[in-house]
Design brief:
InterPro entries: Fv1_restriction_factor. This protein is mostly helical. It contains 16 helices and two strands.
Length: 369
């Protein structure tokens, strides 16, 4: 068996040093230097230097070493123990400060990571703002080009009689200083304001079409254009207003193509029946031209207008057939023409104008009074 005995395990040494450290004032069994404190406590009682608790400097350590006394063998052990305690206290203070600094460093690293995340977020925000700005600039450029094209395509309109009378009746109108423009009202027309208003009104082209906008359009649109608005499908909601306007223009052009085709192919005979194609607008115009009051057909459904239009067509055809059946008057002689021209307002007997017809017994209706 060796003289130095069995080597103790780390657990046994920890329990032994912990028990020894409990008897030392100011030391805990969980302190990482509790084992060293237990060994030094065997040589000499624990000595504390309060000056080294807060900070450790070479001058403070020098003052503490000078206070150690070395006399005799026992005193040497005591002095060695005191020196050991001195350096152990200094080492513990440095170790504690090191732990505190490590915690502060970890905290600073966390703050740096948070700042880096905020920097990335701000960078993405700036990039998205730049992209959005480029898109808006492209839209404004396209809008400006569109306004310029529309302005260049505008053709001078022939002024109506109402506009001419309104212009001539102006008190301040001077034909020598007149610039040749007509206004819809009595106010002077300002082209710069017109361009600004046009640009402002073209702004909603990029806005989505909502149910409220569609209802307002249907309510305020003329009667002959409501069919085109009602024909818009439900998926059109949510699309830009400009696309919907183009779709309405296509629908109106398609309606005109159908009307032109109906005029070219008026009647198609299939099995002895004829098919007549007519638009609601055409029926409306025909009825108004025939003398029908606007109140009678305004807001009426299409079947009602179709029935009235068919009745009107029948009356017109009957009138044309009746006019074709009426006999034409025989030609007048030159003498009779002179008599007629000389006395247009004078009533002439029928027997004088048409002696041959009267002799044969054929009666001619007299002139209407």
């Amino acid at each position: 068996m060796p003289l130095w005995g069995r080597k103790k395990s780390e657990a046994e040494r920890g329990r032994q040093h912990g028990a020894e450290a409990r008897s030392i004032p100011g030391w805990l069994a969980t302190d990482p230097f509790s084992g060293v404190a237990g060994l030094l406590n065997r040589w000499a009682p624990a000595v504390f230097w309060e000056a080294l608790d807060e900070k450790v400097t070479p001058l403070l350590v020098e003052d503490a070493v000078e206070s150690v006394t070395l006399r005799g063998v026992k005193l040497e052990l005591k002095a060695a123990g005191q020196v050991g305690w001195l350096f152990l206290s200094a080492l513990r203070t440095i170790y504690r400060k090191t732990l505190t600094q490590d915690a502060e460093i970890r905290k600073l690293w966390d703050e740096v990571a948070a700042l880096q995340e905020r920097q990335l977020l701000m960078k993405e925000t700036i990039e998205s703002a730049v992209t959005l700005g480029d898109q808006m600039e492209a839209r404004c450029t396209a809008l400006a080009v569109r306004v310029a094209k529309q302005k260049s395509r505008q053709k001078p309109k022939i002024p109506s009689a109402v506009q001419v009378r309104a212009l001539v009746r102006k008190e301040n109108w001077d034909p020598y200083t007149w610039d040749g423009t007509f206004s819809d009202n009595d106010d002077d027309w300002n082209w710069e304001n017109e361009v600004e208003v046009c640009v402002a009104e073209l702004g909603p082209d990029v806005e989505p079409l909502t149910a409220g906008i569609r209802a307002r359009l249907i309510r305020n649109t003329p009667l002959h254009m409501k069919d085109a608005l009602l024909a818009l499908p439900g998926p059109a909601q949510g699309r830009p207003v400009g696309d919907v306007v183009l779709l309405m223009a296509q629908l109106e052009g398609l309606d005109r193509q159908k009307s032109a085709r109906a005029v070219g192919q008026d009647n198609k005979y299939k099995g002895g029946e004829s098919t007549i194609k007519v638009t609601r607008r055409q029926m409306w115009i025909d009825l108004l031209n025939a003398g029908v009051k606007k109140e009678e057909i305004d807001g009426k459904p299409t079947p009602y207008l179709l029935n009235k239009w068919k009745a009107l067509q029948r009356r017109q055809k009957e009138k044309e057939a009746f006019d074709d059946k009426q006999p034409s008057a025989p030609p007048m002689e030159e003498s009779e023409k002179e008599k007629t021209e000389s006395g247009k307002n004078r009533k002439v007997p029928v027997s004088t104008l048409y002696p041959d017809l009267s002799s044969d017994g054929w009666e001619v209706p007299g002139p209407l009074l």
